[in-house]
Amino acid sequence: MDISSALVAVRGDANEDETVRLAGELLNSSKSTMYILYVIEMERGLPLDAEVGASTAKGEQVLKHMEEIAKRYKCKTEAHMLQARQAGGAVIQEAVNRKVDAILIGMPYDGRYGAFSMGDTVPYLLKNAPCRVILCRDARPLRTANEAVR
Which pTM does this prediction carry? Predict the structure, then answer.
């Protein structure tokens, strides 16, 4: 796979460390660039540029952690935070603006309520991305003997 630039979309989920590591391995060249993006989804009742202190602090913490992981690889790293109505649209716009070869996104396994769900962002990226989309989903938890019988 020939990838010289990638956008890694992060939210602060546990499996995103692995997503950044995968991006680092794919981009392990001093000529490649990893863009790490944290999107704060703004409620419709708020202006896009509204101050959201707690969300901004969380985003800064997540980006700092992801940059620490990315330092282990040869590629250049740039981390950014955006405020948008929808994370999917913001990720696509950043991918277009930066002309990346791939978007990587982590996804926790969510099998609550008996049905697997990909949420809103992942299907949006799969449908609209102008480049490869690499999805890093957590492993499905093993069932206990009691759960398997049901």
Answer: 0.87
